[in-house]
Amino acid sequence: MLGGDLDDKKVVLIPNGGLGSDRAHMSYVYLEQFTTINNMYLKQLDLDRWPVSILEKTLEDCDVIVMSGGLVSRLLKAIDESGVREKLLQLIRSGKPVIGFSAGAMCLSKTTYFAEKYIGETDPSVVNYVPLGFVDFEVYPHVEEKTLIPAIKALLPPTVKGFALSPADALIVTQGEVLQAGSPVAL
Question: Rounded to two decimals, what is the model's pTM?
Fold first, then answer.
């Protein structure tokens, strides 16, 4: 996906889905994984704090865009209020790699049913925001118990395709093809 060696890639992390100590912890985990384990450069891009000119330039100059977890509504709100939605969409359409963790993956869908009805952490505010619309399936992250699968399946209308992912699973979309790593459960 990233075209070879991961060393020296410039990664931009958008942490705006999280809050407080959870956000700080997620940022630390990404810092460790990208810079210590993979020897990449990581720049945190807080959409709530910087002018649009800096945000857009940073997004243009990076090799990989990463959107972290939290609530989908917080992340989409930050994207919209910062004024970077069109630039972000244009860069992703042009082929710039984007990695979405949890809420970051959920916001890449065309719909947000899972985010709105997520078991244990619903996000009813997500109905006020338009997702980024790059994939025609929903992602239900953090599934660890097989007993949850029937309840998760019940959340989706029959017209929407979805995947349940454990922490060891990933979906990779490249040139319109959906590839799987680990054992995502198709819903």
Answer: 0.91
